[in-house]
């Protein structure tokens, strides 16, 4: 019997360029990076976003085309520009100016019913930056009503573009959520001095919002996963030669989505997510166009 393809996850949110002082422009945005990794892992995601009818927008569509990604739900905006983040370096530390009124702020809810498959997706990934605007919030609400798909929430608290009430609403509608330890402390206005305190803080969020699980990424220390039934799992990161940590969290999200779609055990999913994110840190940029990078992980996971 021929193996049936997995249902396609939907990925909602921003596509943008990180623009550095030396003129380098790097295509990204958390949802875009997640969708790119999912494509590399063979899961054929549907990215729902919006770009301008400008040169940057054409570059987005061209890049997606080279990776054989579906552009059918990437809207084109004749008025607003493709997303940009201006990065400045002060004393070696980057600061980010996330420009307002970008194309991804205006994802139009009206065409979505025509653009999207009638069948509800098995999972809807969403971030938090794109819903800073009412228009894109309405688009997300439209998506959420299409069969009520379970939501994977990736919290990205980018000042000044987040509001506590919107984050709270997002958590209430999510089934699974991910954030890093610094964002957890910002959200709760509390810090953890040790592992036990960190587990308790994470569990408080998991229970309050009735999540199935909450993932806390810890950078070079690995990750913590707390589960609704009070179980928790740690995974340590193996030391790697770090080139660039940009997008490591997005890589982690992609693996956890694959784990959900393929019913991996949670501890195994966490360990694989840590390993994949660490590997992304050994290369320049958040994503790669090398199919062998993904093929190596896929082969190892199938053998295990």
Structural account:
The chain has 304 residues and is of the alpha/beta class. It has one domain: 3-Layer(aba) Sandwich (UDP-N-acetylmuramoyl-L-alanine:D-glutamate ligase), CATH 3.40.1190.20. The protein has 10 helices and 13 strands. The protein has helices at residues 30-40, 55-66, 112-115, 134-144, 164-173, 181-188, 195-208, 248-262, 266-280, 291-303, and strands at residues 10-12, 16-19, 25-28, 46-52, 74-77, 83-90, 93-98, 124-126, 151-154, 176-180, 213-217, 223-227, 232-235. The strands form 2 sheets. Strands 5-4-1-8-9-10-11-12-13 form a 9-stranded mixed sheet, with helices on both faces. The protein has a 4-stranded mixed sheet with strand order 3-2-6-7. A hairpin with a 5-residue loop joins strand 11 (213-217) and strand 12. Helix 1 packs across helix 8 and helix 8 packs antiparallel against helix 9 (266-280). The longest helix is centred in the last third of the chain and has 15 residues, at 248-262. The two termini are 23 Å apart. This is Carbohydrate kinase. GO terms for molecular function: ATP binding; kinase activity. Residues 24-289 form the Carbohydrate kinase PfkB domain. It comes from Nitrosococcus wardiae. Belongs to the carbohydrate kinase PfkB family.
